[in-house]
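Hi again,

Forgot to attach this to my earlier email, sorry! This is the prediction with guanine bound. I've pasted everything inline since the attachment limit keeps bouncing my files.
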Amino acid sequence: MSAKIISGTEIARVVREELNERVAILARSAVLPGLATVMVGDDPASRLYVGMKNRAAAEAGIHSRQLTLPATADQDDLLETIAALNADDAIHGILVQLPLPRQMDASRVLLAIDPSKDVDGFHPTNLGRLATGDVDVLAPCTPKGVMEMLARSGVDPAGKRAVVVGRSNIVGKPMALLLLNANATISVAHRRTVDLGALTRTAEILVVAVGRPKTIVADMVKPGATVVDVGTNRVDDPSRERGYRVVGDVDFEAVSEVASAITPVPGGVGPMTIAMLLANTVESALRRARKRW
Ligand code: GUN
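Structure tokens for the complex follow:
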């Protein structure tokens, strides 16, 4: 069997087109959605990601403000910045790029963001609402993007066995909650899981987010499964101009022969994460306009 490729690039393009319409509706009420991105220090990967997010916001007609604090900033500087953005009516979404420098406590910083402007969905209030099955919550962008990919590919999680590999607060845990809220029967695998393959072979929907190439190989996949690869890993490749290529956590070629549908890397979940950040920002602006905060 050769699996159907679920193109995140294509689905994200459609989602972003639909968002343009919502932004146009808001413009008629003189509302301009605003996103603030906050970065501390000058980590090259973070700079790249934040740059991509701001560019995407501009393309969607979202006003974006990029704030960069020096690597030596202390936590109070960052908390003051967040407090100012919480109080700023032009800003509907606040994103603090992770990881933060060592002198900062990320959980305290995330707690300072107004939950109604938490477009990353990382605030404990929003994660708690997700855990109670609240469908209106601002959900974390990557797992929300995976749900959108499944929905738009005709894969309904209801009644299916879903296995999530990885238990991070950013992807694995909220992914499991979203699948559970969509009535899947879920399992979460992690570093200490015994016989990972035995568990993943039970999955009709398999989502992998661990950050290690070839974590999932062909004999770990149930024939006909839908496989979603959240990983982005650089592997050396002297044949490429840059000297590396980007691969996911799944052995794509081999697993494609077993699965019925699979997301590629690159061009899979990545573009969806950004599309969902824009969607959350527009949603937050709409709620503000309707005074539903
Ligand atoms: N660092 C890695 N992924 C993310 C993300 O989705 N949001 C933020 N804020 N930081 C990240």
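The chain has two domains: 29-114, 139-270. The two ends are 48 Å apart (CA to CA).

That should be everything now.

G.
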